[in-house]
Amino acid sequence: SKAQAWSALFSEPMSDLVKRYTSSVFFDKRLWQADIAGSLAHAEMLAAQGIISAGDHAAIERGMATITREIEAGQFDWQLDLEDVHLNIEARLTQLVGDAGKRLHTGRSRNDQVATDVRLWLRGEIDLIAGLLADVQRALVEVAAQNVDVILPGFTHLQVAQPVSFAHHLLAYVEMFARDAERMADVRRRVNVLPLGSAALAGTTYPLDRERVARTLGMDGVCQNSLDAVSDRDFAIEFAAAASLVMVHVSRLSEELIVWMSQNFAFIRIADRFTTGSSIMPQKKNPDVPELARGKTGRVVGHLMGLITLMKGQPLAYNKDNQEDKEPLFDTVDTLKDTLRIFAEMIGGQPGPQTGAKSGGISVNRQAMRAAALKGYATATDLADYLVKKGLPFRDAHETVAHAVKAASDQGVDLTELSLQQLQGFHPAIEADIFDALTLEGSLNARNTLGGTAPAQVRAQLARHQARLGA
Ligand code: ARG
Question: Which chemical reaction does it catalyze (predicted)?
């Protein structure tokens, strides 16, 4: 068997099964760019501090440039025997530039190296995710802007509650994704701190300039305790928690899209290319994309559970357990990015390659929404509020309206279909202007408090989001 970096101490080679069990190169090789960036920053500092020569530094830079080309061209020979991305790259560097390559690891351990790599990689991914969260928000804002005056029933307990603007409903999700973006930005602040220079666990005997490495790598600071630096994965757990919340929001939206697409609602359609047919039922168009997003939420939440459980029993400092942080983290990032991309496209629609006309997007059936809002006594609260304005205490008004709703539903009619005389039978203060208050538009317009569904409020929120998102 091939000699290992630490082999002098070992009297027998590692078994193939153990090799396969302990190696991580086939998944952690995706950290290669971060690994090389970290190594180059470390080498530059070693040279600046006089720990390695300028010649060695130049050789390391040359070697890393070659390795970069090899990996990009798909010609790099990743070896299971070399366990992980770090040892693979270092071994190749030494093959290419000799002793200078062997000097790179001075004052460094894979423990601080891997913690640095994961942070650098995750920082880049968080930036991409922030962009995608903005895309999804812009798509929602765009659809909302076209649907301020479209009214659908708002629900509580999935029972018709009060009419709301469809734009208002969509902007609720914009709020959620805006908070998600804030959370990601906050996680990023704690991700972007440098472990390198902590070495294996206790710091190092070489006069390293850790601040310099942090500056080179664009990090906001250095980890202040070497034991914590090599063993902390809070940042990964926090990220998984923030990602889980994004997915939960996507999942709630998915559930609504699925319900709205169902024939019993028929509120919306989504473009055909986000739906699939059935192999047996020719009439089918199934909302597979939102359904899968709802399903994949379980997967991401599972990764959060995996990561947090991974940490709970670990003594200080580094333990090999931590190698298990990568696959859940990678899959969380991949799942989240794909989901956000597809949602941005599905909601907002994309300019088509030929015509430039939008394809995709949500088409709204405003008549179906309106008809649904007119069922279920969505404006009953407005009748109560009307009576309060005539001087009734709210609790009495509530009771009076309950009687009116009971009578209307016994007759199978809406409140607006009762005659003025009938309504006055419930309370003499009711006058002809009640019919304005009981319309869907009247109900919306009346909810003109900040954050309410009145079109004036919704337009103000739209403007705020458009300015914030540069939409
Ligand atoms: N592949 C390892 C990981 O992912 C790198 C660090 C290994 N360090 C060690 N002392 N075995 O965590």
Answer: 2-(N(omega)-L-arginino)succinate = fumarate + L-arginine
Give the residue ranges of the chain where pLDDT is below 50.
Answer: 1-2
Task: Mark whether 409 is an active-site residue.
Answer: no
Which pLDDT tens digit goes with each residue over 250-275? 999 999 999 999 999 999 999 888 88
* Closest-CA residue to 212 (of 77, 85, 50): 50
Fold of domain 111-144+153-205+219-363? Fumarase C; Chain A, domain 2 (1.20.200)
Q: Is the CB of 169 under 6 A from ligand 1?
A: no
- CA 242 vs CA 18, 121, 177, 247: distances in Å: 35, 17, 11, 9
Ligand 1 midpoint to CA 73 (Å): 26
Q: Where are the domains of the chain?
A: 15-106, 111-144+153-205+219-363, 378-465
Segment 287-297, tens digit of pLDDT: 999 999 999 99
Q: Indicate if 378-465 has the same CATH topology as 111-144+153-205+219-363.
A: no
* Whole-number pLDDT of residue 283: 85
Cis, peptide link before residue 317, omega less than 30° from 0: yes
Burial class (CB in 10 A: 0-12, 13-18, 19+), 469: middle
pTM: 0.94
| Residue in 7, 15, 53, 278 annotated catalytic | 278
Residue 1: its pLDDT value, please?
41
User: How much is the pLDDT for 349?
Assistant: 75
Ligand 1, residue 200: give the atom nearest the CA. Answer: 10
